From TrEMBL, chain A:
<dbReference type="InterPro" id="IPR001851">
    <property type="entry name" value="ABC_transp_permease"/>
</dbReference>
<feature type="transmembrane region" description="Helical">
    <location>
        <begin position="64"/>
        <end position="83"/>
    </location>
</feature>
<feature type="transmembrane region" description="Helical">
    <location>
        <begin position="12"/>
        <end position="32"/>
    </location>
</feature>
<feature type="transmembrane region" description="Helical">
    <location>
        <begin position="292"/>
        <end position="309"/>
    </location>
</feature>
<feature type="transmembrane region" description="Helical">
    <location>
        <begin position="38"/>
        <end position="57"/>
    </location>
</feature>
<feature type="transmembrane region" description="Helical">
    <location>
        <begin position="116"/>
        <end position="136"/>
    </location>
</feature>
<feature type="transmembrane region" description="Helical">
    <location>
        <begin position="89"/>
        <end position="109"/>
    </location>
</feature>
<keyword id="KW-1133">Transmembrane helix</keyword>
<feature type="transmembrane region" description="Helical">
    <location>
        <begin position="156"/>
        <end position="177"/>
    </location>
</feature>
Automatic annotation (TrEMBL), chain B:
<keyword id="KW-1133">Transmembrane helix</keyword>
<dbReference type="GO" id="GO:0022857">
    <property type="term" value="F:transmembrane transporter activity"/>
</dbReference>
<feature type="transmembrane region" description="Helical">
    <location>
        <begin position="169"/>
        <end position="191"/>
    </location>
</feature>
<dbReference type="InterPro" id="IPR001851">
    <property type="entry name" value="ABC_transp_permease"/>
</dbReference>
<keyword id="KW-1003">Cell membrane</keyword>
<feature type="transmembrane region" description="Helical">
    <location>
        <begin position="251"/>
        <end position="269"/>
    </location>
</feature>
<keyword id="KW-0812">Transmembrane</keyword>
<dbReference type="Pfam" id="PF02653">
    <property type="entry name" value="BPD_transp_2"/>
</dbReference>
<feature type="transmembrane region" description="Helical">
    <location>
        <begin position="20"/>
        <end position="40"/>
    </location>
</feature>
Length: 317, 326
């Protein structure tokens, strides 16, 4: 493998490591164990949304609702906690609600052939509305006690439990994506729905499954969000989470036209976003610049992916 | 994107009567909605309130007309709301540093066009999906707006700069005839020029349009630039309306515009739709939103209703389309 090829195929790893070195040189605290540990906890909700979004994007769709939906699910958990004082029913409600929502989106996209971005855009607004309606206006619910403490700050061998959960889910997704027929079917649908159909793949069912998984990931992200924050309120920045997650996916080399992408790349993308978010705070970059930076990063990554894809196409011919 | 470019005359006739029917239904609903809200709130029908209503949806008219062009090509522009804030910021800063209102107007429109052109190049030339590219510029433009304003609003008192958005002739806000002029100009552009035919061609079938030498990739760049320019124009109106430039102005405007355009009968898949439908769609949607605000509806309930309206309209469209195909 020559250097050019490494740069082309593993560019995200190179960029992430270079960023790490630069941030370390500016602020040595960056590479401290405490800070790395903090990053690993911060990226969990973004990582979960990115994982769900990964499958959606590989299949050639998008789920714009995931950020706001996770805020709604966090609020839902909080409301049930407030009502019952426990988390059991709340967790169950979140899982059921997130699977239902994903399933409904999937049916609308797969069976009625509605464009995913419109369906999920309206779902985004409904989730935002619902998150403000299930909780009295202007209120926050504080989440205290066993589960939130445990899921939010428990460590095993010095690693946050929530981060291990993310890694575990990614590992499971990796196996499904690379070693099962479902993974192959998702890639086939992303490449060409018609061909996938001709190959005997039940396209509708796979699509509904993908959206159910992305819904479930929103639910998990909501749970993790609530445990990390210690309180929930409807005004949490769901769209910011969504943008971070999509940025992570694109930076990870996933082709937005669908049909190509790796879980490993997505993980590096998530790591990159986590590191950059952390560094922007650590280096006292003003908040107003964060969003500019993200917009530029997404556009740049889109451009770079396009160039790499273009050069690959011409190599193939 | 799969339909053919050649149109068979009877089908065209059926499509036109279908659209006419839709416009009649929309007009009926507009009457119905205004009657409903006037019963709920006796101030609704006053001439003053109609002026306020039209002024408050003037921006939606402008942005939605741009969105119509975009959606006729089968695309989407999620960046317009942020773009309104960004272009407004550029205009206001130019005004406060140079003191020249015309220069402020010009830079606002150019700033809006710049974001639009970035969208257009990525979507038209690089063939990347519109929602992804405009989602990036949605973040970028909002971020730039926050940077320009340093996250606080800036008061504007220059009468020339505020004229378009803030002045009224009697009960008629100046901006209403202005919106009408823009509508006429864009109608001429869409129905009477080769550019307009290219818009429809690019939306009906991009590849066929390409083979026919209509240069759809070039049209797409211009269409997004147009959408951006209209966002710049909306920024001027927005600043004029509230006498200040605000970094969070135009929030969720793209969502309102998309809903209004779909309500007006423009196909999500491109190639089908008219500006008149968008005008009716904006009117109906604007009356509903305005009515919700006037009746003091919980903002979160408003969000929920907005989401349900969009999904409902899209579902209804797919259902009626299905009926036609069978």
């Amino acid at each position: 493998m020559n250097i050019g090829k490494i740069l082309r195929e593993r560019n995200i790893i190179v960029v992430t490591l270079v960023c790490c070195v630069i941030f370390f040189l500016i602020s040595p605290r960056f590479l401290s164990v405490d800070n790395m540990s903090a990053i690993s906890r911060q990226i969990v909700p973004i990582g979960l949304i990115a994982l769900g979004q990964f499958f959606v994007i590989v299949s050639g769709n998008i789920d714009l609702s995931m950020g706001m939906a996770s805020v709604f699910f966090a609020v839902l958990l909080g409301v049930f906690f407030g009502l019952t004082g426990g988390v059991g029913i709340g967790l169950l409600a979140v899982v059921v609600a997130s699977l239902t929502m994903g399933g409904l989106i999937g049916v609308l996209v797969a069976k009625l052939k509605l464009p995913a971005f419109i369906v999920t855009l309206s779902a985004l607004f409904m989730a935002q509305g619902l998150s403000g309606l299930v909780i009295p206006r202007g209120q926050q619910i504080f989440l205290m006690g066993g589960f939130f403490q445990f899921a939010g700050s428990q460590k095993i061998f010095g690693i946050y439990l929530s981060f291990l959960f993310l890694i575990g889910l990614c590992a499971a997704a990796y196996v499904v994506y690379n070693h099962t027929r479902i993974g192959a079917a998702i890639i086939a649908i992303g490449n060409s729905e018609e061909n996938a159909k001709l190959a005997g793949i039940n396209v509708d069912r796979v699509k509904i499954g993908i959206f159910m998984f992305s819904g479930l990931c929103s639910g998990f992200a909501g749970i993790m969000l609530s445990t990390r924050m210690g309180f929930v309120q409807p005004g949490l920045d769901g769209n910011g989470l969504l943008l971070d997650a999509i940025a992570a996916i694109i930076i990870g080399g996933t082709l937005i036209q669908g049909g190509r992408g790796t879980i490993g790349g997505a993980l590096w993308g998530i790591a990159f976003i986590g590191i950059v978010n952390n560094a922007l705070n650590l280096l006292n970059v003003e908040d107003v610049w964060h969003q500019v930076f993200k917009g530029v990063v997404i556009l740049a990554a889109l451009g770079v992916n396009w160039l790499l894809w273009q050069s690959k196409q011409s190599e193939a011919h | 994107m799969t339909s053919t470019v050649t149109v068979n005359p009877t089908a065209a006739k059926a499509a036109i009567s279908g659209l006419t029917l839709r416009y009649l239904v929309l007009a009926g609903l507009i009457v119905l909605a205004s009657v409903g809200f006037s019963l709920a709130n006796e101030n609704f029908y006053s001439l003053v309130n109609i002026g306020i209503l039209l002024r408050s949806i003037a921006v939606l008219f402008l942005v939605s007309m741009g969105m119509t062009f975009v959606m006729l090509t089968g695309g989407i522009d999620l960046s317009v709301g942020s773009n309104v804030a960004f272009a407004g910021g550029v205009g206001v800063i130019t005004l406060t540093t140079t003191g020249s209102a015309p220069l402020g107007f010009l830079t606002a429109i150019l700033a809006g066009m710049a974001i639009g052109t970035i969208n257009g190049i990525f979507i038209g030339r690089l063939k990347l999906s519109a929602f992804m590219v405009t989602l990036a510029t949605f973040a970028l433009a909002r971020g730039l707006a926050l940077v320009i304003y340093d996250a606080t609003s800036i008061n504007v008192s220059d009468p020339t700069f505020l004229w378009l958005g803030g002045t009224s002739w009697g009960n008629i806000p100046v901006v209403i005839p202005f919106v009408f002029c823009v509508f006429v100009a864009l109608s001429v552009l869409l129905y009477r020029t080769p550019f307009g035919r290219n818009v429809y061609a690019a939306g009906a079938n991009f590849n066929t349009a390409f083979v026919l030498g209509r240069r759809p990739e070039r049209s797409v760049v211009w269409i997004y630039a147009l959408s951006g320019a209209l966002a710049g124009l909306s920024a001027i109106v927005t600043v004029g309306r509230v006498s200040s430039g605000q970094p969070w102005s135009g929030l969720y405007l793209e969502f309102d515009a998309i809903t209004a355009v779909i309500l007006g009968g423009t196909s999500l898949f491109g190639g089908r739709g008219r500006l008149l439908g968008t005008i009716l769609g904006v009117l109906l949607y604007g009356i509903i939103i305005n009515g919700l605000v006037l009746t003091g509806t919980n903002p979160y309930l408003q969000s929920l209703i907005k989401g349900m309206i969009l999904l409902g309209v899209v579902l209804l469209d797919s259902w009626t389309q299905r009926g036609k195909a069978a």
